[in-house]
Design a protein that fits this description.
Length: about 270
């Protein structure tokens, strides 16, 4: 089966639909026209540039360039996690905590898939490594950002309850136990919902892309199942680690609640 290439002028026709939506939003005075247009332009520019980068990376196949690309992806994801939090930890913790959780969870899962499950030769083959890492890292980024935002916001709102529990002799883990569990659930829920709806409500993106590229549906389904499992595991472990580290940072060695370690929303 041949892949039908899309000319740039055909993509411009698809962009007309975005312009129609922007006009509708403008006429409806929803206040999102500018954001929509900027996002559309960023999508086109960013994906075009990454396409050129990936073509060069695939042609090279050097592990150094694969590692460099992976590090850049991780750092950008860490920046996005920090930016999506209304209240975040001060200093290097704001960036390092989410980035560290993504690094351990996403990179571990990706290396396991490449070395054990898929088994390309070499195992760091960029055709497999970069797309897999991108999918796992992107979903882990969303989950970790959600759980950290839920954690800090809830701790701030319930600070009086937490301090009362501490005064009654509860250790800090018990004082924020329900908050930690709720934050972890909020980080894992998008991936769990995506798994539950896959194949019934929606056709996941990787499977759809492989089918459009000519892969047999049976092969595409197996890859999609693997990716869905990996995304859930990466998001789950990342959320657990981020909440564990973040909640510990909110208390000092004397188990006092340290809200001064949180930034003030803009």
């Amino acid at each position: 089966m041949n892949v039908i290439d899309l000319a740039w002028w055909k993509l411009a026709l698809a962009a007309i639909l975005v312009l129609l939506l922007a006009a509708t939003i403008y006429l409806g005075r929803l206040g999102m026209t500018r954001s929509l247009l900027i996002a559309a332009v960023r999508t086109a520019v960013q994906l075009s540039l990454i396409g050129l980068v990936l073509e060069a990376l695939f042609a090279s196949g050097s592990p150094v360039w694969v590692l460099l690309m992976a590090v850049v992806m991780l750092l950008v994801a860490g920046r996005e996690v920090m930016a999506r939090q209304n209240r975040r930890l001060r200093g290097a913790w704001a960036f390092g905590l989410g980035t560290g959780a993504m690094f351990i969870s996403s990179f571990t899962v990706t290396v396991f898939l490449l070395a054990v499950v898929i088994g390309p030769r070499p195992w760091y083959e960029p055709q497999y490594a970069i797309p897999l890492l991108g999918m796992i890292l992107g979903n882990a980024m969303t989950g970790i950002a959600l759980c950290l935002d839920r954690l800090t916001e809830t701790v701030w709102r319930q600070r009086a309850v937490i301090e009362s529990r501490l005064m009654l002799g509860q250790p800090w883990r018990e004082a924020v136990g329900d908050i930690r569990r709720d934050a972890m659930r909020s980080g894992m829920m998008p991936s769990i919902n995506a798994m539950a709806a896959a194949g019934i409500v929606s056709l996941p993106g990787m499977m759809t892309g492989q089918i459009l590229a000519g892969s047999p549906p049976g092969v595409a389904v197996k890859y999609q199942i693997m990716v869905m499992f990996a995304i859930t595991v990466g998001s789950g472990f990342g959320s657990v680690m981020a909440v564990a580290w973040g909640s510990r940072r909110l208390f000092d060695d004397r188990e006092r609640l340290r809200l001064d370690r949180l930034t003030v929303p803009r």
